Amino acid sequence: MNRSAFVAFIHTFFSEKKEIASLVLHSTNSTPTTGPTHTLILTRHGDSIWNGKHVGCKETFTGWTDVPLSPLGEKEAIRTGEILADLTREVEIDALFTSTLSRAKMTAHYVWWAYNENLEEQYRREKHYQYYNRPGNMPQQNSMQYQGPAQWLADYRLNERHYGSLQGLVKVEAERGDFGHSADEVYKWRRSWHAKPPILDDDDPRRLEERRRFGPICGLENIPRGESLNCVAKNRIRPFVEEKLTPLLEEAARRKPGDEGGTALIVAHANSLRALIGVICKADQNETAAAFSKARGDENPDS
């Protein structure tokens, strides 16, 4: 992450709550940070049809299975955009990153639509007297507020953790042993930083569908068959941070005055965001990983 520190505001979705859960993180470099401090705004995708709240669907291990948002998830994404506009109205978002999975891309779409709609409404309310109540004066729009981010990128490295042969299994059924796994095993696969679930066989129909769907996007060699959280952090998130995120934010900072850093909105998944936080805090490189892996940022940490 070079010379830069990061500050992250993390929004997680709650079923009955509307508030934002915020956490501030700084780079854990032992040496004093020089240069700009970048800002990350992290949000998990909205409720999907496999998160257990959609009528007729049970909470299911999802991973790389490409399921859409539920109607509730669409509302959550819109609400997130509204809240984001209230909290970051003076901040220029330089880039929006999302995964290649539909539930994250749909969330990003709804978030950005609501974000811009809410900014425009705020602008009109504040400028109503100044412009609209004075004959002969035309409203002067601040076009920067209505532009999309300088870059909008979908990156497979932000995809959810691959849950191997657990994908598509109802969680409570897996936990009670219906598929031959003990409750302790399932718990470790869900909570441990290093435990990896059973991998998908090459001839499994789920694996064949993933190869068909994601091969053209990320290359067959980059489609996992099952991952631990450590695998996500090491093989996907750290390269993403070093090769894509940091250079883009450094470039954005060079266009700004003083030590002002770049700002990125990242719309992804519970476990890829957990891995991202772990990489920024260097939890993936030291003994704090075990304790970190127990932290929960939302009600459905596996999807």
Structural write-up:
The chain is an alpha/beta fold and 303 residues long. The protein has one domain (5-134, 146-161, 230-296): Phosphoglycerate mutase-like (Rossmann fold, 3-Layer(aba) Sandwich), CATH 3.40.50.1240. The protein has eight helices and five strands; from the N terminus they run E-E-H-E-H-E-H-H-H-H-E-H-H. It has a five-stranded parallel beta sheet with strand order 1-2-5-3-4. Helix 2 (102-132) links the parallel strand 3 (95-98) and strand 4 (151-154). Helix 1 (71-87) packs across helix 2 and helix 6 packs across helix 7. The longest helix has 31 residues, at 102-132. It is globular. The two termini are 27 Å apart. The model is unreliable at 10-32, 128-135 and 137-146 (pLDDT under 50).
CA-based shape? globular
Give the number of helices: 8
Question: What would CATH call the class?
Answer: Alpha Beta
- CATH architecture title: 3-Layer(aba) Sandwich
CATH H-level superfamily: Phosphoglycerate mutase-like
Helix/strand order: EEHEHEHHHHEHH
Question: What is the strand arrangement across the widest sheet?
Answer: 1-2-5-3-4
Low-pLDDT windows of residues: 10-32, 128-135, 137-146
Instruction: Report the helical percentage.
Output: 25-40%
Biggest pleated sheet = 5 strands, parallel
- Provide the structure class: alpha/beta
Count of folded domains = 1
Beta percentage is 5-15%
Taking Cα atoms only, what radius of gyration do you get, to the nearest Å? 21 Å
Average of pLDDT: 81
Through-space gap between termini: 27 Å
CATH-defined fold name: Rossmann fold
